[in-house]
Amino acid sequence: MSTTMHDGIASSGRAGDSHVLRPGELDLSHKVILYLEDISVSFDGFKALNNLSLTIDAGELRAIIGPNGAGKTTMMDVITGKTRPDSGKAFFGQTLDLTRMNEPEIAHAGIGRKFQKPTIFENHSVFENLELAMKTDKRVWKSLFAQLSGEERDRVSDTLKRIRLQTEADRPAGLLSHGQKQWLEIGMLLMQEPRLLLLDEPVAGMTDEETERTAELFVSLAGQHSLVVVEHDMSFVEALGGQVTVLHEGSVLAEGSLAKVQADPRVIEVYLGR
Amino acid sequence: MRTPLSVRLFQSLPRTGWLALAIFAAIAWIAIPAAHLLLPEGHALYVSAYTVTLMGKILCYAVVAVAMDLIWGYAGILSLGHGVFFALGGYAFGMYLMRGIGTDGSYGVALPDFMVFLDWKELPWFWVGSDSFLWALIMVVAVPGLLAFVFGWFAFRSRIKGVYFSIITQALTYATMLLFFRNETGFGGNNGFTDFKRILGYDITSPQMRLVLFGLSAALLIAVLILGRYLVTSKFGRVLAAIRDAESRVRFIGYQPTQYKLAIWTLSAVLCALAGALYVPQVGIINPSEMSPANSIEIAVWVAVGGRGTLIGGVIGAFIVNLAKSFFTVSFPDYWLFFLGFLFIGVTLFLPDGVVGLWRKLRGRRPAATETATPTPAATPQGAKA
């Protein structure tokens, strides 16, 4: 009896393997992980985003640059559910409509965000910061009785090693240096095991050496994860090596390799013109 | 390899904590009953009925203070209306006590006196079942719990925070007080309930009953301290502290702060209600003035004086403020409110971490920043190796 049922499921799986739609799950069948179309957001008449359209492929490492006020942070707010767009479409994969989900739902679906100013839990230890961020069932009832398994403990240790904070594990996170806080926040992001990472000025306040290591880390994450990095530091963007999108006044001004966009007269105009 | 819940409950308190609870239990359950019942009046160690009742009352307040600390100290939600849950718990049990009077009231009929006075012929529908002890216990938990849940659901869902939340909790307790002041509401108007005779058939004024109520208050306090300690050392407690410190970050890592706040808020309200239900038979009266905004503010003062985010601070604060209150209202009744005001200002200015904070400072121990999000030994990598 059980074997026949198993066969039945297996064969139906074979029949429909061209495209199985699973509600609530990330669908990457068209290689696109993030799809923004004609997004507009205005605050008191000021257009923060103006018909912004942008697509990010699965596994891509994309840098976003642009002068202050170009709409970079607002774009991240729209993607993570903090701000609702006035118009336009925002999809995660083929099926998940980001404009209809709230922040925790979007986080669960697999989008992690690092803020411009490091926001970590300063009164919690470094270890606890990572523990709280870890991908797991995050409902009240589960948290009441949660215990770290050996495997989960290992995952925290691995991340601690990766962000080079092993020796700081039991210290309150508020006592870390600025660069270490940035790394801790990146570590928290990794613990969430997101498919798409949004990183807002991740190397601000880091030493040159830390910046270099961060670039290495991001490059090693690409492929398995997709990354969108907002940054002003051009040498860091160069070290990332991926495609670059230039935002200006709430929409895309240019897109391509760093060398290509740097040669674009409109980009030069925007950065140096006034 | 999962640790059983009982073991984790045991581990949530340090050894000194268990020792302190054991000493407290011995005093409350053995020493004081013995001193009250066995020693002759006038003996140096005799504990008077007044003292037992006063202590029992303060134990109930201490439970309220711990419940307040759970939401204020650990989740950052300052309620200035917690008196309403305390009073509703008291009223729910008071209804049972009123029915227990039976025909011994001044009119000699089964209806409570105030209903006879209002010329009501029969019990209103919401008094049905109130003669059952079990029903009364259910109501003690259910009514305040439901009110807290509904109120919290709307408030937290709308992301009402900080001082705005505090103000609407004041409005909640004030509005409920006005409602209970009305005779038509059916809870005795501004006189409330009093003249209780018996609980489960036993005389409520007997020394034995006094000691049972006192002992139950102590038991409730012990239970609430252990439960509270478990909660704040669990992952649930760490999420609460994270919500207190950086709520939006918590949202972005996938927790729904609304549900966490609602859970601790409702639990806190229910704990207050249980304290209220034990308080009413000990003091012998419940009336709407328990819901006055000033009473609720006083609860916050207890916690501030003792030290927020420490649990035990609430107990210490409740004892300090209420013993001072008993002293002042007897010796210098006119100066009590001035003293309370100065105490609050003084603590806010000079002792932001309360008495517990002062104690830690004097012992030269810098309060570890993780104290509020206390890691259990098992939550650190070292613990894993051990």
Automatic annotation (TrEMBL), chain A:
<dbReference type="GO" id="GO:0005886">
    <property type="term" value="C:plasma membrane"/>
</dbReference>
<keyword id="KW-0547">Nucleotide-binding</keyword>
<feature type="domain" description="ABC transporter">
    <location>
        <begin position="34"/>
        <end position="274"/>
    </location>
</feature>
<keyword id="KW-0067">ATP-binding</keyword>
<dbReference type="InterPro" id="IPR003439">
    <property type="entry name" value="ABC_transporter-like_ATP-bd"/>
</dbReference>
<protein>
    <submittedName>
        <fullName>Urea ABC transporter ATP-binding protein UrtD</fullName>
    </submittedName>
</protein>
<dbReference type="Pfam" id="PF12399">
    <property type="entry name" value="BCA_ABC_TP_C"/>
</dbReference>
<dbReference type="InterPro" id="IPR051120">
    <property type="entry name" value="ABC_AA/LPS_Transport"/>
</dbReference>
<dbReference type="InterPro" id="IPR017781">
    <property type="entry name" value="ABC_transptr_urea_ATP-bd_UrtD"/>
</dbReference>
<dbReference type="InterPro" id="IPR027417">
    <property type="entry name" value="P-loop_NTPase"/>
</dbReference>
<dbReference type="GO" id="GO:0005524">
    <property type="term" value="F:ATP binding"/>
</dbReference>
<dbReference type="Pfam" id="PF00005">
    <property type="entry name" value="ABC_tran"/>
</dbReference>
<keyword id="KW-0813">Transport</keyword>
<dbReference type="GO" id="GO:0016887">
    <property type="term" value="F:ATP hydrolysis activity"/>
</dbReference>
<dbReference type="InterPro" id="IPR032823">
    <property type="entry name" value="BCA_ABC_TP_C"/>
</dbReference>
From TrEMBL, chain B:
<dbReference type="GO" id="GO:0005886">
    <property type="term" value="C:plasma membrane"/>
</dbReference>
<dbReference type="GO" id="GO:0015658">
    <property type="term" value="F:branched-chain amino acid transmembrane transporter activity"/>
</dbReference>
<feature type="transmembrane region" description="Helical">
    <location>
        <begin position="335"/>
        <end position="352"/>
    </location>
</feature>
<feature type="transmembrane region" description="Helical">
    <location>
        <begin position="163"/>
        <end position="181"/>
    </location>
</feature>
<protein>
    <submittedName>
        <fullName>Urea ABC transporter permease subunit UrtC</fullName>
    </submittedName>
</protein>
<feature type="transmembrane region" description="Helical">
    <location>
        <begin position="262"/>
        <end position="279"/>
    </location>
</feature>
<feature type="transmembrane region" description="Helical">
    <location>
        <begin position="18"/>
        <end position="39"/>
    </location>
</feature>
<dbReference type="InterPro" id="IPR001851">
    <property type="entry name" value="ABC_transp_permease"/>
</dbReference>
<dbReference type="InterPro" id="IPR043428">
    <property type="entry name" value="LivM-like"/>
</dbReference>
<dbReference type="Pfam" id="PF02653">
    <property type="entry name" value="BPD_transp_2"/>
</dbReference>
<keyword id="KW-0812">Transmembrane</keyword>
<feature type="transmembrane region" description="Helical">
    <location>
        <begin position="299"/>
        <end position="323"/>
    </location>
</feature>
<feature type="transmembrane region" description="Helical">
    <location>
        <begin position="133"/>
        <end position="156"/>
    </location>
</feature>
<feature type="transmembrane region" description="Helical">
    <location>
        <begin position="45"/>
        <end position="64"/>
    </location>
</feature>
<dbReference type="InterPro" id="IPR017778">
    <property type="entry name" value="ABC_transptr_urea_perm_UrtC"/>
</dbReference>
<keyword id="KW-1003">Cell membrane</keyword>
<keyword id="KW-0472">Membrane</keyword>
<feature type="transmembrane region" description="Helical">
    <location>
        <begin position="211"/>
        <end position="232"/>
    </location>
</feature>
<keyword id="KW-1133">Transmembrane helix</keyword>
<feature type="transmembrane region" description="Helical">
    <location>
        <begin position="71"/>
        <end position="93"/>
    </location>
</feature>
